[in-house]
Amino acid sequence: MCATVGVPQALLYYKYFPLWSTFLDGLGAEVVVSGATTKKMINTGTSLGENELCLPVKVFFGHLVDLKDKADALFVPRVVSVEKRAYTCPKFLGLPDLARSVDGSLPDILDPVFNRRLSRRKYYEAILDFGKTFTRSKVRIIRAWRAGLAAQKTYEGRLEAGLTPMEAMAGEAAAPSGGSLRIGIAGHPYNIYDPYTSLNLIKKLHQWDIDVVTTEMLPAKVLHKEAGRLPKRLFWSYEQEVVGSVFHWLNTKSVDGIIYVLSFACGPDSLVQALLESETRRKGGMPLMSLVVDEHSGEAGMITRVEAFVDMLRWRRQ
Amino acid sequence: MKITFPHMGKLEMVLTDVFDRSGLDYIVPPKTTIKTLQLGVRHAPEFACLPLKITIGNFVEALGAGADTLLMAGGIGPCRFGYYAEIQKCVLRDAGYKFDMVVLEPPPAGLKPFVDTLKVLAPGKSIYEIWRLIKVSFRKARILDELEKYTLKYRAYEATRGTTTKAYKQALETMRPAISEDEIEAARAEAFAILEAVEKDMGRSCVKMGIIGEFYVLLEPFVNFDIEEYLGHMGISLERAVYLTDWISPSKENQISGISNDEVARAAKPYLNHFVGGEGLPSVGHTVLFAKEGFDGVLHLFPFTCMPDIIAKSILPRISKDFDIPTLSLVIDEQTGKAGVLTRIEAFIDLLTSKKAYKERKSLETVGSVR
């Protein structure tokens, strides 16, 4: 069927790209990834999207437009749920429909449904259905999916070893550790690792001789166990991971401070922020800073705040 | 135990009816005012949606009035509403308030906890008694919604401005004391008689407008600036997508709006092919259905940062284009001023009125040319 499939380098790209690209590759499609986020993309996304949408979705729109002339079809899966009794964010549930309403001149949108709330059989039926648009061979689809899962496992292993998604995908070595401070960064991968959205936060910290650990670098088991201490289980999987990582750092005191990155108007994060700040206050002894980013954030403002936070951490150490 | 609950339009009437039947001691929180909103904003997380802020304000005021137990609904996501109770508990405890909290989680989250919570709300009653109690009370609640639907539709036609609103209030008071099933049916007949007795001018040409959006903003007059009464007085006949009992009811058959959830999902399918929590899918589906039924326009209301309705808002322009139906989305938060909302709505009404007049002229011209 289609020769080239475009994958936007935004949102869940940072979580599942190895799975998706290997799967699409196995189906016989050529995978094209949009370029790194630029100011132009954010401007495009902001002007096309509803102004109430959160920054990451606007960035995503910018990437879709970037792929317009580079691909025959765009890969925008509907990731409804990644585990039983939980959802992702509502925006992910409606993402293909949002993409279609952005710009009528975009290529076809491929929207496989990933829904772990369904039975195992139905989950795989959806994958087979999607695969059929490329090949008639069921065996080939299953083989491609299995290869994808294997690639994903390797990728997640690398993240747990302390690599950032970009390092893990490019096969680079991790940034050298042994800095004078250790900061935990909690938040959604598409906010933390997108150099443009996060205003290069991780790189800045490295330059200041600070070690960085993120939510993705902790094993899923630990995240789940820690998040399980909430009185009511969170029904958003990705927020559960964020809560799990912050609770883990609060408990083990394995970092000097925590920076929680969230985007303006993020629905789930608006509530999670209250939970995290309350828990940190109750436990005491661990500085936590919430850093809210949006399309108007300037690097200077961010640096001022983070510098002040880092100074405070250094004083605490002395 | 003195139980209390947040305000949401007629919810107060429905819940006090249930508590009177179950014999529970309750306190109705003071009416939602600007002070409630300020109290809520002080305690609630900054970026949380407006309903959370106002319900927290309701709880603070009710605790001040002597309540010791808070009743709140739960949820299983993905809308934030399902986690409200946890956040309310968290911020109010941090603020130093002492209280118990009863959270009514929906049956899909577990049947046993659901039944157990019901037993707390109706102490000493058997399951059968509770079921009977809810059934009768729910029938009454349905009638309240029917009265409201009638009022929305016919207020625009009243001969003297204000008579419908007066009659509607009187009709609600007629319903309030009804306890037994016979009394409820008798009160229903009487209430409708009161509404029907209002003098109407049905020859009037009224713009027909559909109202969609997030249920709390739609149902709570304090939040939506009593927009429905205002529109009625401006001569707009209204139909709303969400009613209280349709929303509470576990059934897919929405008896008040008359459109089942499945129909709504089918209508929305070309535009939004999956539920997204909250009112996202209904907002899209009802807009399509309103357009097909020949409504003149659709008004969309939702709180700032509401995830499901932002998705709906992003999609509405496509429907508006395909069906040639004007839509207006208004985002409401604690900063929203009434004058700003009314100005935009007036402009929208002007647009709908002239569009309707244009259409009628056009159709007259085509009839003339055929002859």
How would you sum up this structure, described in words?
Chain A is an alpha/beta fold. Chain A has helices at residues 13-26, 39-48, 55-66, 90-93, 95-102, 120-131, 138-160, 165-170, 189-192, 201-207, 220-227, 237-252, 267-283, 299-317, and strands at residues 4-7, 30-33, 73-75, 78-81, 108-110, 113-115, 181-187, 210-214, 257-263, 288-293. In chain A, the strands form three sheets. A four-stranded parallel sheet of chain A has the order 2-1-3-5, sandwiched between helices. Chain A has a four-stranded parallel sheet with strand order 8-7-9-10, sandwiched between helices. In chain A, helix 1 packs antiparallel against helix 7 (138-160), helix 2 crosses helix 3 (55-66) and helix 12 packs parallel to helix 13 (267-283). With 371 residues, chain B is of the alpha/beta class. Chain B has three domains: 3-125, 3-Layer(aba) Sandwich (Rossmann fold); 135-203, no CATH class; 206-371, Rossmann fold (3-Layer(aba) Sandwich), CATH 3.40.50.11900. Helices cover 55% and strands 10% of the residues of chain B. The longest helix of chain B is centred in the C-terminal third of the chain and has 33 residues, at 338-370. Chain B is globular, with a radius of gyration of 21 Å.
Write the layout of secondary structure elements.
The complex is a heterodimer of chains A (318) and B (371).
Chain A: E1 4-7, H1 13-26, E2 30-33, H2 39-48, H3 55-66, E3 73-75, E4 78-81, H4 90-93, H5 95-102, E5 108-110, E6 113-115, H6 120-131, H7 138-160, H8 165-170, E7 181-187, H9 189-192, H10 201-207, E8 210-214, H11 220-227, H12 237-252, E9 257-263, H13 267-283, E10 288-293, H14 299-317
Helix pairs in contact in A: 1-7, 2-3, 11-12, 12-13
Chain B: E1 3-4, H1 11-22, H2 34-43, H3 50-64, E2 69-73, H4 84-94, E3 100-104, H5 111-121, H6 127-154, H7 163-175, H8 181-196, E4 207-213, H9 215-219, H10 227-233, E5 236-240, H11 244-248, H12 261-268, H13 280-292, E6 297-303, H14 307-323, E7 327-332, H15 338-370
